[in-house]
Task: structure prediction
Amino acid sequence: MATPYQDRKLPDPMLNVGDERYFEAAGQGKLLLKKCNDCKEVHHFPRAICPFCFSTKLDWVEAKGTGTIYSYSVTRRAGPIPYCIAYVTLDEGISVLTNIVDCDLDTVKIGQKVKLTFKKTENGTSMPMFVLA
Result:
């Protein structure tokens, strides 16, 4: 049995102060991460302070856009259209909560390589998601 991916209506994200650059880059096909200048850790979702050492000395860095599925779940009962939510471990070593798109959802497996893509929300904001590599 196959469960083909279907585009679904995506709500717009609620923006926090400082999120503008993240979503501007997403609109240009780039996934930005924050890197702490004090402890050198990288994190996602971008925050105003480092979640590891609470420093405010942060810079934006561009992710390679590739990673591996750490865990996933295909949601079939939350709405009329099934979708795959997943934790993807980026090649930079951090995990992001995302969606796996544009594939047969029954073929998704832990450990599969994925690459970055973007889907548009209701008002055109680009949201980072992943496709099977």
Strands lie at 32-36, 42-43, 58-62, 66-75, 83-90, 95-100, 113-120, 126-132.
